[in-house]
Amino acid sequence: MSAPTNTNPARGMRDFLPIEVRKREYVIEIIKEVYESYGFEPLETPAVENLETLTGKYGEEGNQLIYKILKRGEKLEQSASEKDLSDLALRYDLTVPLARVVANHKNDLPRFFKRYQIQPVWRADRPARGRFREFYQCDVDAIGSSSMIVEAELCAAVSEILHKLKFKGFVIQLNHRKILSAMLNSVNVPKERHVEALITLDKFDKIGDEAVFNEAMKLNLSENFLKLAPFFRSILNKRREINQEFADRTMEHKRNVAFNKYNEDVLEIISSFIKGQEGEQGLSDIKKILEFVRINNLEGRVIISPMLARGLSYYTGAIMEINLDADSEFEDFNVSIGGGGRYDGLIGMFGKEEIPACGFSLGLERILVVMEERGMFPKELETNSADVLITVWNEESIGESLKLAGELRQQKLRVLVYPEADKLGKQFKYAAQINVPFVCILGESELAENKVTLKNMETGEQETIEREEAAARVKIHKQNSKSKS
Amino acid sequence: MSAPTNTNPARGMRDFLPIEVRKREYVIEIIKEVYESYGFEPLETPAVENLETLTGKYGEEGNQLIYKILKRGEKLEQSASEKDLSDLALRYDLTVPLARVVANHKNDLPRFFKRYQIQPVWRADRPARGRFREFYQCDVDAIGSSSMIVEAELCAAVSEILHKLKFKGFVIQLNHRKILSAMLNSVNVPKERHVEALITLDKFDKIGDEAVFNEAMKLNLSENFLKLAPFFRSILNKRREINQEFADRTMEHKRNVAFNKYNEDVLEIISSFIKGQEGEQGLSDIKKILEFVRINNLEGRVIISPMLARGLSYYTGAIMEINLDADSEFEDFNVSIGGGGRYDGLIGMFGKEEIPACGFSLGLERILVVMEERGMFPKELETNSADVLITVWNEESIGESLKLAGELRQQKLRVLVYPEADKLGKQFKYAAQINVPFVCILGESELAENKVTLKNMETGEQETIEREEAAARVKIHKQNSKSKS
Q1: B47–A46 CB contact, under 8 Å
Q2: A293, A433: one domain
Q3: Residues on chain A touching B81 (C-beta within 8 angstroms)
């Protein structure tokens, strides 16, 4: 075996040490729990897909980012192209595999299939801060229904996740592809330029209205496009006003009332812009979603954003984006941590029929970064996962330490046994290094008296107690520190 | 988008539908829980490794089975070899990544690092029944200690996992590379032929002694090798006798006593065979492990198997293999579902020092297959993960159904809302199809009286009750069916 000197993970990939795994699992568990409470069931698909399953699904740019797997033992011909070299690829997202599974199981899946899927995907993207080549997606999709119940429940579920993760200021922006389309029609942007216009529009609250309209000019989009400017500007201003006026969280109720009013105003303006069946359908959908989310106490959390476009061209109905407040409570919504919408054409891609579908994808990596920055993880994730370390007095007493460990594990504690008969000082140094909350000392006198000495590593307090009391003592502490964090 | 007709997962890969995911997670959760109770912490490494990290670590055969990833946008030269085409590869096992992580973090990992890792690996193997190209490994390793505490705790942890999964008949076979080596020396098998001899020996209880010795003859192993035959044969016979005599599980205690005696006898025979420091060290280790596991009530579960060799050449000390009984309770131990041992040379492969290490790997896929065959999964994994489906009476009452769903979720129930105002019969048909335990009907009269009708889908019973009682009713049922299974 030759010893390569590079022991880093591959570029853009990450190792997760225990503390990082615990934080990831903490977030994932909450996501799963909430999705399951809304009746979504777990699905898993393989990391490796047939290349033909993925090719052509992600546009030209996406195609370039797919990791392709070298055919095994393939002889390389002079004319070898990528196609000859590879027929497998790494999963690029969770939507195409879902579409494949739905087609493959069309006779045994229920008519309405609600699934969540939390798995890594791989993209040969240029690594950057917060952008990795292996990252998790948390997708949730409801297949088979055109009802706005689906959109409303997705909004409710995602909000509940953020509540449980203890995010305070967040908002779900809501728009509709059919409204966007009707609006662009109303200002005479030709159909074939809608996609360009949408991409430009989508940057509105990121780069500001002026920059958007400069871009629109450059792209030579209809001058009428500019007619939308005052409308959007007034909406954005209204939003900022509300956020500023009710920045204090004690005013959350008033803020919600204000955003309800805002939603009504925006709906009215939209109505005045658009004509025809398409726009009406969009408006009717949006009104239903707002009606339904009101039942789940989400008023003021779901706000209409007529400039929200979301890049992906496959959306066909409602579109949603979830945004965290930037710094202070409700200042502005510019940290996007997920989005979704209705895409009735996509899930049927491997079959013959169009299947209605609506989904949402949370950006796990982004959520983790923000939670880390804001110190939102429970304190107990930072300590060792073991509750207590049992010391070893000497070679002869190892059995006693193992026995005690067995007893404490029976009491549902997580127990480490120091693995060698080192000096006690060394054992304590180790306990501090691994950040274990308690050390249980089984020394000569403790062994003689059938007692243990329990040391709280946080406070430094230690006391010698009956062996049978040890587990209860640790558990009380555990309960207390949990309720504190 | 072209529509490929093949919607199967790639060859040797699998999709896991909800019920399968739940079964996999059930097993994984128990494995994690037990490993954590022994102070092991989770580690995760990326699916994609630098090719040079993996190359040369798995022997020539292993090398061939590594999935290599095509370099992106690489121009293919006439002279292109695999090396020019790929510098990344898919994880092949969890041990090499662990060694890399240990080397990479040698200054921030604790002196004793106990980690578990449950992740998929990929091998371009020929798919067969029970053999997949993507499969999970469940590894647990303790790095940094040479103490037999480690071996003993690994045996205890793995036993506890199998107990919690409700396996009845299983045994941990124990042997030691140094004993094997001393034994082969004692019958004059030259050092350079030990590996061959071990591989042959390892088949002893699989293909029978005669076949083993025929193979030994063919390989032209020392004739003295045959001197081991009567010894091994007598051990195997003794084992079968004990298993037959105490096949009834009510006799488990007697069986354990008999196996204790067996262990003592075997140790004595081994002692008589071997001479020299190496063998003595092995014997002393084995005795310590047996002493320690006795404390954890594992006597009779850990039995010495002097013919156990385990293929991997990297083991340096104790070796272990866990075997399930074949069909009846204790008939014979021929379903291997995991194994491990001490491998003091391997973890240091990326560094300069030798680091002591001992680990165990459970075969998740094998465990799942056996549990499925034997019907060992709790019944509740077979039903939908939702507790109750709420019907929708008509378009106007959708809000009421959503409201009830919110109330029940507040009570920690998992709730599906039927997404359309279909006929009630259709909604029930769906409830039966997705196998949800309860349907909560919110019809015209229920709405008028502020009640709900709850139908138990298993028994067919239904009753109209106060809205506030619904959650409690479902929970009681859930509790009952859990304690039954």
Answers
A1: no
A2: no
A3: 76
d(CA B278, CA B275): 8
Q: Do B10 and A48 touch (CB under 8 A)?
A: yes
**Partners of residue A303 on adjacent β-strands:** A173
Q: Residues in chain A, how many? A: 485
For B330-414, strand residue ranges (E) read 333-342, 357-362, 388-390
> Which residue type does A355 have?
I
Domain that holds residue B116: 18-40+102-373
Distance, in Å, from the CA atom of B383 to the CA atom of B436, rounded to the nearest integer, reads 6
Helix (H, G, I), strand (E, B) or coil at A322: strand
Q: Would you say residue A2 lies in a domain?
A: no
Q: Based on the domain organization, do A440 and A344 belong to the same domain?
A: no
Q: Which residues of A touch B112 (CB under 8 A)?
A: 418-419, 430
Any idea what the CATH number is for the domain that residue B160 is in? 3.30.930.10
Residue B469 covered by a domain:
yes
Shortest alpha-carbon distance between residue B18 and chain A (Å): 5
Per-residue pLDDT of chain B (485 residues; tens, 9 = 90+): 444 568 999 999 999 999 999 999 999 999 999 999 999 999 999 999 999 999 988 888 899 999 999 987 545 554 556 667 899 999 999 999 999 999 999 888 999 999 999 999 999 999 888 889 999 999 999 999 999 999 999 999 999 999 999 998 789 999 999 999 998 888 888 888 887 887 777 777 667 667 777 777 777 776 777 777 778 888 888 888 888 888 777 788 888 889 999 999 999 989 988 888 999 999 999 999 999 999 887 877 899 998 888 876 789 999 999 998 754 443 445 688 999 999 988 888 888 888 999 999 999 999 999 999 889 999 889 888 899 999 999 999 999 999 999 999 999 999 999 999 999 999 999 999 999 999 999 999 999 999 999 999 999 999 999 999 999 999 998 888 777 65
Q: Are B67 and B89 in contact (CB under 8 A)?
A: yes
Exposed (0-12), middle (13-18) or buried (19+): which is B311, by Cβ within 10 Å?
exposed
Which member of B56, B69, B297 has the closest CB to residue A70? Answer: B69
CATH number of the domain at B457, please. 3.40.50.800
Boundary (domain end) residue, out of A323, A344, A373: A373
Find tokens 């909004």 and name the residue: A155
Best probe of the B interface among A7, A101, A116, A312, by most B CBs < 10 A, is: A7
Report DSSP state, residue B128.
B
Q: How many domains does chain B have?
A: 2
DSSP three-state, residue A478: helix
Does one domain contain both B404 and B366? no
Whether the pTM exceeds 0.90: the reply is yes
A122 with B42: Cβ contact below 8 A? no
- Could you say which of B10, B82, B403 has the minimum Cβ distance to residue A46? B10
Question: Side chain identity at B82, as an amino acid letter?
Answer: E
Q: Do the domain assignments include residue A6?
A: no
Q: Which of A6, A25, A150 sits opposite B50 (nearest CB)?
A: A6
User: Looking at beta carbons, which residues of chain A come within 8 Å of B156?
Assistant: 406
One domain for residues A331 and A480: no
**Do residue A42 and residue B64 have CB atoms under 8 angstroms apart?**
no
Instruction: State whether B44 and A16 contact (CB < 8 Å).
Output: yes
> For B127-283, where are the E strands, in sequence order?
134-143, 170-176
Cβ A398–B292 below 8 Å, yes or no?
A: yes
Does residue B129 sit in the same domain as residue B228? yes
Pairs across A and B, CB distance < 8 A: 315
- For residue B313, how many C-alpha atoms fall within 13 Å in the half-sphere facing its CB? 9
Q: Which residues of B touch A73 (CB under 8 A)?
A: 64
| Å between A147 CA and nearest CA of chain B | 6
Whether A426 is covered by a domain: the verdict is: yes
